[in-house]
Design brief:
There is one protein chain. This protein has 11 helices and 3 strands, in the order H-H-E-H-H-E-E-H-H-H-H-H-H-H. It has 247 residues and is mainly alpha-helical. Strand 2 and strand 3 form a beta hairpin. Helix 6 runs antiparallel to helix 9, helix 7 runs antiparallel to helix 8 and helix 9 packs antiparallel against helix 10. The longest helix is centred in the middle third of the chain and has 25 residues.
């Protein structure tokens, strides 16, 4: 039996890889806090993460912090450096294009498949998720809107089960957040709510071709809002960002 979306949380879980096995542990807590800060664009690409700082913020040993950083590096969220430090990964322009090309291929195929098999309970759960996204956009809560946007894309894939493809998409979406933080032109939500609504209508009509086309166009629009030339150097207070996320 395929899982219902009714129990899917609005916050997407950690992507596949070492991070997924760390969930629920002390290592997993650090992993998820850093991942959330990256996905919500509070930690920009290039931001430095040191074992000493993270240990002080989370009250954790260097061994625990090192394991969390290794898990984040495995899932391409951070890049490990010498002297017990790491940096939030900064995808190149070529990598950025590859990430979205991968999403377009995967999510268009997912849309085609989901439209043929989605049931009314799953549609209701997706509508509820979009209602949360709309509320975040209306409230001007950009971090929540970004998080819910990614959650919607993952939730669509999850209607077909929590398998390899859904895990793979999680990783692509996390890396997409890095790309948008680094190359995004505007301060508007990175993934248009109105286009999500239009896409859901395609699913409601069980029209696979229309759903696939809408998803492809949607991802093209995200790429069109990127400035795939300029690399902005980040300036961030790690302690402020991660301590705030724990309050």
């Amino acid at each position: 039996m395929r899982p219902s979306l009714a129990s899917i949380d609005a916050k997407p879980p950690a992507p596949a890889g070492q991070g997924s096995s760390a969930r629920g542990s002390r290592v997993g807590s650090i992993y998820q806090s850093v991942l959330d800060a990256v996905v919500e664009h509070r930690l920009p690409p290039g931001a430095k993460l040191t074992e000493e700082q993270l240990g002080a913020i989370f009250g954790a040993s260097r061994t625990t912090v090192r394991s969390a950083l290794q898990a984040l590096a495995h899932d391409h969220i951070v890049t490990l450096a010498r002297h017990r430090s790491a940096f939030v990964s900064a995808p190149t322009v070529e990598k950025a294009r590859d990430i979205f090309a991968g999403r377009k291929l995967v999510e268009s195929a997912i849309a085609q498949e989901v439209a043929r098999h989605i049931n009314d309970t799953q549609l209701t759960a997706l509508r509820a998720l979009l209602a949360q996204e709309a509320a975040a956009v209306t409230a001007g809560d950009r971090p929540a809107a970004i998080r819910l946007s990614g959650a919607f894309h993952i939730a669509v894939a999850a209607t077909r089960g929590e398998g390899v493809i859904t895990d793979f998409l999680r990783g692509l979406i996390s890396q997409s957040s890095l790309v948008i933080a680094l190359y995004g032109r505007s301060h508007a939500p990175a993934c248009g709510h109105d286009e999500h609504v239009a896409f859901l209508k395609g699913l409601e009509k069980r029209d696979g071709d229309r759903a696939a086309r809408l998803m492809s166009d949607h991802l093209d629009h995200i790429v069109a809002d990127l400035d795939l030339v300029v690399h902005r150097e980040p300036s961030v207070d790690l302690a402020v960002v991660l301590r705030a996320s724990r309050q």
